[in-house]
Amino acid sequence: MIRQILHVDLDAFFVSVEQALRPSLKGKPVIVGGNPPRGVVASASYEARAQGVRAGMPLSRAHRLCPQAISLQVDFPRYRQVSEKFMNILADFSPYIEPVGLDEAYLDVTGSGSATEIASILKSRIKSELALTATVGIACCKVVAKIASGLAKPDGLLEVKPGKERGFLAPLLVARLPGVGKKTGQILRGMGVVTIGQLAALPLPLLRHTFGISGETLYRYANGIDQSEVEPPSPAKSISRETTFAEDTLDFSLLEAMLGCLSERVGDELRCQNRRARCITLKLKYADFKEITRSHILKVACQADQVIFEIGLGLLEKALAKSHKPVRLIGIKVSNLVGEEPQLSMLDSATEKLEKLDHVIDHIRRRYGYSLIQRGRTLSFNRLLPKWR
Ligand code: DCP
Ligand code: CA
Prior knowledge:
The protein has helices at 13-21, 46-49, 59-65, 76-91, 115-130, 142-152, 165-169, 182-190, 196-200, 204-211, 213-222, 252-272, 305-322, 349-368, 381-384, and strands at residues 5-10, 30-33, 41-44, 70-73, 97-100, 104-108, 134-139, 157-159, 239-249, 275-286, 291-302, 327-339. The longest helix is centred in the C-terminal third of the chain and has 21 residues, at 252-272. By secondary structure, the chain is an alpha+beta fold. Helix content is 42%, strand content 22%. The protein contains 15 helices and twelve strands. Helix 4 (76-91) runs antiparallel to helix 5 (115-130) and helix 12 runs antiparallel to helix 13 (305-322). 2'-deoxycytidine-5'-triphosphate is lined by residues 9-14, 42-43, 55-56, 103, 153-154.
């Protein structure tokens, strides 16, 4: 069966998220980057690109090329949030999703109807729900779908029909192929190869001889052949949250409060993923940068915030009893993760109650906001960590 693969890529991602928040920035040269003067451009609006600004370029150079550009600082938490919504929209169209970074993904929609129709519905949902534009490339394999979206940017949709791959690729520069960087490009130029069509016409043994095993990949890609599957990411083996204090500390209440907050975050993620953990690990980094981890294995896998917190607290007390060095970083990790299924009946009734309570709290928080509900245990955190929610 001929596959139908979509490569979906959000346009000028970081910049577009900022523009969606502040529509007055739309249509203007906008740059999102690190801290000046040493920072580099992470994302540039197409208006800034027209003046030569590119990702990875030092901000100072970008401002010389485009003095009227509006510069903004990167806001990763926000981009991650938008990315999650983006991936959730994609998940409505196919279970076969392979995210690439925050703003790109491959989608296998084989057998789900017209790929162009799916792509245009997808694009309009992204526009209406996220106020962002996406470009979609469609082909029977990943590499051609990716090249197609690259060509159609921004806000584009380009389908390469089955059988037309070689003809589509032939006039394009070899640099369009994944894996062809400066060095490979130079060697190819030395061989008289500038376009993908010229590359596709080279004998395979010559490419093997020149580039080794990657010569074969080049040959296949240049001929529009890529059998690799759209691979959903395998679930993470652990979940962890950690934080570095603004100042090194030995204040037990503060450490306890932070541990409580991190435990809730880890528990929340476990429940989101419908998983439970059998191993809980505390991590401490001291002021002298020495790092320790202490683990505890549970008899029955859990996902309750309070269990994670109490085990973590026990490990923290033991660690602090041994060493009196100020703490720079504290973290909590859960691992040995298992699925939801077999556990509930094995839990003792107290833990079962705790877990039910967590689910209710999660539900209220998702509906009305994180800070609406708080456990008594964490009330004291508000004074110590005024911004923790
Ligand atoms: N990024 C970065 N540093 C780079 C390249 C990218 O921080 N050198 C970040 C910022 C981008 C995001 O990753 O917004 C996605 O990268 P893309 O290469 O997809 O670039 P854009 O989405 O900005 O633009 P395009 O419209 O070309 O996809
Ligand atoms: Ca992008």
